[in-house]
């Protein structure tokens, strides 16, 4: 099963922007979608499906309207890449499984409080511990510029784009430490415009829950890029990063 915690462009852990989480499982065919929005998760039920039933019973999920579903575009960005990656699933993981045998469970994650991120982290931790599942958390990083109403600049870093990179990498370092409290403190201090901060928070809390039970895991970022290099106050850019969480 694959789980994508999402919000806007690929920051794979797959880590994304307006708040979606997907779960892919090879145990049952795709049958419905689960989304998280605002203080709860929203779910659109089409038929009985074990994973959805388990999540629905928690009382933490809500039904999602078709319009809200259609307005969220991030899954459209992810699925072609996921399908392509799964063509090599047999080779990489040595499992007799075709991409068409996998199931996606998308969850739309909204503006959760820290306590809610912790609660959902506990809910998803058991799925994260299952080696047949893969979580994909999608998010952009810093949205910088007047059009984003965010122009943080540390002059000691030199060019504006260097300041943005330093700001992003501070947050990335905390994510690599799998520390949800420090990540929350970082956001409060710098207000970095990371669209997928709440899905990331859910992931960090899920990892923390597993670590309490002796599960060993590590996270490392693999790449970082900016859409453009900001050098003046008239410029703007969006940052992207890719990282991987490995359960040992």
TrEMBL record:
It comes from the Eukaryota. Gene3D superfamilies: LigB-like (3.40.830.10). InterPro entries: MEMO1_fam. PANTHER family: PROTEIN MEMO1 (PTHR11060:SF0). Belongs to the MEMO1 family. This is Protein MEMO1. It comes from Xenopus laevis (African clawed frog). The lineage of its organism: Eukaryota, Metazoa, Chordata, Craniata, Vertebrata.
């Amino acid at each position: 099963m694959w789980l994508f915690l999402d919000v806007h462009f690929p920051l794979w852990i797959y880590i994304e922007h307006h708040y979606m989480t997907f779960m892919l499982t090879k145990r049952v065919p795709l049958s419905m979608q689960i989304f998280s929005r605002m203080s709860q998760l929203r779910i659109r039920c089409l038929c009985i499906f074990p994973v959805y039933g388990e999540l629905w019973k928690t009382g933490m999920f809500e039904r999602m309207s078709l319009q809200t579903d259609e307005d969220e575009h991030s899954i459209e960005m992810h699925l072609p890449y996921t399908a392509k990656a799964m063509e090599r699933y047999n080779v990489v993981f040595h499992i007799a499984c075709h991409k068409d045998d996998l199931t996606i469970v998308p969850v739309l994650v909204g503006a959760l409080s820290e306590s809610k991120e912790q609660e959902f982290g506990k809910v998803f931790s058991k799925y994260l511990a299952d080696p047949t599942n893969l979580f994909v958390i999608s998010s952009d990083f810093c949205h910088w510029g007047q059009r984003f109403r965010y122009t943080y600049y540390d002059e000691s870093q030199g060019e504006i784009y260097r300041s943005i990179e330093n700001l992003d990498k501070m947050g990335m370092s905390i994510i690599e430490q799998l520390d949800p409290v420090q990540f929350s403190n970082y956001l409060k201090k710098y207000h970095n415009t990371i669209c997928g901060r709440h899905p990331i928070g859910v992931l960090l809390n899920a990892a923390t829950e597993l670590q309490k039970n002796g599960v060993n895991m590590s996270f490392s970022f693999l790449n970082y890029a900016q859409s453009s290099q900001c050098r003046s106050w008239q410029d703007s850019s969006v940052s992207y990063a890719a990282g991987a969480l490995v359960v040992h």
